[in-house]
UniProtKB/TrEMBL annotation:
InterPro entries to which the protein is assigned, alphabetical: PEX11 (IPR008733)
GO cellular component, as recorded: peroxisomal membrane
GO molecular function, one term: identical protein binding
Upper classification of the organism: Eukaryota, Viridiplantae, Streptophyta, Embryophyta, Tracheophyta
Keywords: Membrane, Peroxisome, Peroxisome biogenesis, Transmembrane, Transmembrane helix
Protein name per its UniProtKB record: Peroxisomal membrane protein 11-4
Role: Involved in peroxisomal proliferation.
């Protein structure tokens, strides 16, 4: 099969996933935000269209995530005991609050509910989301550190005992896992910036460039993690 055909097949698989569609539309949302910022003073008509695209993309993502809070609820039920138990509970609880109240934000902005609900539900959603991201980042950093220690032990044994197929396979697994966790950390950190802009508005986080770049970092890191191997 040609490289182009293989890429197309992977794209089809990627877009068949809910997360794949979300990352694509998120890219549209934040590219249009940057386009609106860049054209606002020089090309007002283009900026207006870009803003409409951004708004439509944001609402589409919220509609597509309907019922997603059940994933967080299910993860809460299955939270592992031991050292990651508390971190997993807090992370998934924050994510569940985020997705649950996101329904009200979507319905209010779509005109189904009272418009004033959008601001309040958006704040609660962003607050829960930020709590979740902090603990997801903490768990990933702990696992990255463990992976580095395990990799060093394997490399030291390799120097003394020679290479083996099992050792090489384990090293590859650790390195792939580290890359995926780094991508998750980058995405969560970028989304945390967006949450802070909602929870505690400030000139840096609320600037269109900061939000645009953060959104694209999150989208593309998620794209990388969900792309078929």
């Amino acid at each position: 099969m040609s490289a182009g055909g293989d890429t197309l097949d992977k794209l089809v698989v990627f877009l068949a996933k809910r997360d794949g569609i979300d990352k694509l539309v998120k890219t549209f949302q934040y590219v249009s935000k940057l386009a609106h910022w860049g054209a606002e003073s020089s090309r007002p008509e283009f900026a207006r269209r870009a803003k409409s695209w951004e708004t439509a993309s944001g609402l589409s993502r919220k509609a597509f995530r309907s019922g997603r809070f059940l994933t967080g609820f299910n993860n809460l039920r299955r939270a592992p005991p031991g050292e990651f138990g508390a971190l997993a509970v807090l992370a998934n609880a924050g994510e569940m609050v985020y997705f649950f109240f996101d329904h009200f934000t979507w319905l209010a902005r779509a005109g189904v509910l009272e418009p004033w609900l959008a601001r309040r539900s958006s704040f609660i959603s962003a607050f829960g989301e930020s709590v979740g991201y902090v603990f997801f980042i903490a768990m990933d950093l702990v696992m990255i550190r463990r992976g580095l220690r395990q990799e060093r032990k394997l490399l030291m044994r390799e120097a003394g005992a020679g290479k083996g197929a099992d050792r090489e396979k384990e090293l590859r697994r650790i390195r792939v896992d580290r890359v995926m966790r780094l991508m998750a950390t980058a995405a969560n950190a970028a989304d945390l910036v967006i949450c802070i802009a909602e929870v505690e508005p400030n000139p840096f986080c609320n600037h269109a460039v900061t939000l645009g770049i953060s959104g694209l970092v999150s989208a593309w890191a998620g794209w990388y993690r969900n792309w078929p191997s």
